[in-house]
Task: structure prediction
Amino acid sequence: MVYIFGVILFALGICVSIALHEAGHLATAKMFGMKVRRYFVGFGPRLFSFRRGETEYGLKAVPLGGFCDIAGMTVLDEVTPDEEPRAMWRYPVWKRTVVLAAGSFTHFILGFVVLYLLAVSMGLPNLNGTPELAQVSCAKDATTPEALRDLSCAPGDRAPAKEAGLQQGDVIVAVAGKEVSNYGEVQDIVREHEGPLKLTVERDGKEVPITVEVVQVKRPKFDPQTGNPVVENGKPALETVGMIGVSFPRQYEYGVWDAVPATLTFTGDMFAKTWDALLRFPERIPAVVESIFGEERDPDTPVSVVGASRIGGEAVEAGLWELFLLLLASLNFFIGVFNLLPLLPLDGGHIAVTWYEKVRDWVRKLRGKPAGGPVDYSKLSMVTMVLVVVGGAVVLLTVTADIVNPIRLFPN
Result:
């Protein structure tokens, strides 16, 4: 039941995001005086609607979409004589751009708000894996996964990091002369080492060389594919690894005020990762197809709304609300950035056409020629149709993969 609740809650979050996207178009269009005919959430059969002023508001049966019908979005749109003076295409380019981009910026604002609430409640995750020391403790044996959480020191326990002079807040920038960018790289090197190891840490803006003694300890063995503990003969399997007795922050906690700049920085990092994911999107599609026919699903492959909702449900079931909120924020950023791509029928495509007309007319004016006519959208219909078909195929593939071979937080 908790899992189902999580799935429904995440799907509801997506529906609210889409509704607010269209509300962004609605609010800015009305602010500039454009004629807004209809504002609907969902698609399919109409459940109910009401009229307030000149705009009809309503809800349709499938709440996974929506639209804001603005009179005269292009010159090809039919408008009545009373609508023509307020047709969208008659307004200055910058006003049309604001209206078209408002949907995406609503996603950005919503994502920021979700991250801010996460920052002041549960903290922001260490997204880049910054190798900053959260605690300097002891290096000791642990025979069960539960024992890994015990960071206390008993008499006789070794504390190599503390003995070497490492301090909480130090950022490890190099290990054995090799630059490192995240704590995963630090752990990989230390686990395979024994004896003296040279580190370079950043402390108070200066680089400090430190030599630490790596000791060998027994630790539970985990399956690298599933992340689950390995069990042999009914007991947790153990392995001997190198340790220095430090831990790294999985998340950072903030107060009400210092959460604002932290959230802004974190949002910038997420934008960079979102853009990178968009660039790698086409190359990940073959892996989605392979997963439908039985290949192991790569966690790095694209997911649909169905897959994202399932992951959200698993996060709620496991009590990982920070992951739930992070996933909701990242989905909003992805939708916002994707919608600004200069491709029809996306809002970014309409913005591109609008500015093409503006630049073209400016160039024609410099050459002493009159302004050209509006772009004939009918000539772009074939390109638009191809993109719609391709987009529909991608959605179908990802939904199918998320049903028959979904990405799971906790693989069996």
Summary: The chain has nine helices and 13 strands. Residues 12 and 63 are 9 Å apart (CA to CA). The two ends are 19 Å apart (CA to CA).
